[in-house]
Amino acid sequence: MEVVILPDAATIGGTAADAVAALLDRKPDAVLGLATGSSPLAIYDELAARCAAGRISFRQARAFTLDEYVGLPADHPERYRNVIDTVFVSRVDFGPDTVLGPDGLATDIPAACAAYEDAIRAAGGVDLQIVGIGTDGHIAFNEPGSSLASRTRIKTLTRQTRLDNARFFGDDLDAVPTHCLTQGLATIMAARHVILVALGRSKAEAVHHLVEGAVSAMWPATILQHHPHVTVLLDDAAAQRLQLIDYYRETYRSKPDWQGF
């Protein structure tokens, strides 16, 4: 697990964008995994700027999103497919129908989840997956207690997750959906490279468990300790609970030409 502590969200965004650019240089038809939420926004801003400047292209690439609320109308602004279109997909040059997400309006949820897993496999799997982390250690919507072997499925959201997301619904907890479709932990683990971004003091406890704690279903992100290629990008606030924080800082400083991606 590569742990990199950087000064701010913009620097993190540029560092992660460098990894995406390097991947697309060597594999223009790469498959990306896209997360919503606030953590990856700086990445998407940087990628959009580079695309507008002609420095990167997504024309041959494909992408899969991590999760989706169940039951939100197709035109709801907080439906994750609409969110990812707004913050990223519409700002770059993906081809038509090359970005897919779980179908939160499906009448047959298990069949829709199975079809989504099939689509990821048919694309050859995800080359680079971007994820954030919840204050309770969830990734995607794999809440505490999730099976470490889980695949795409329906989940009930915890009250904490709904409280965290209420800001997107006018701080109205009742407006936040109670269920979602999410890629499972085993689905995420199948990606060839995972970049996890965490920003702010509220993520510090979860980051401590992620990097230095025991692997546990109560802190679902800890399963990433078993992944062969994970890069954790943190700001100072998110890194503050790490017991080995000085080691992580020194490891990065001692490699100015660091090419861990």
From TrEMBL:
The keyword Transcription regulation does not apply. It catalyses: alpha-D-glucosamine 6-phosphate + H2O = beta-D-fructose 6-phosphate + NH4(+). Its EC number is 3.5.99.6. SUPFAM superfamilies: NagB/RpiA/CoA transferase-like (SSF100950). The keyword Ligase does not apply. GO terms for cellular component: cytoplasm. It is an enzyme of class 3 (hydrolase). The active site is at residues 67, 136, 138, 143. PANTHER family: GLUCOSAMINE-6-PHOSPHATE ISOMERASE. This is Glucosamine-6-phosphate deaminase.
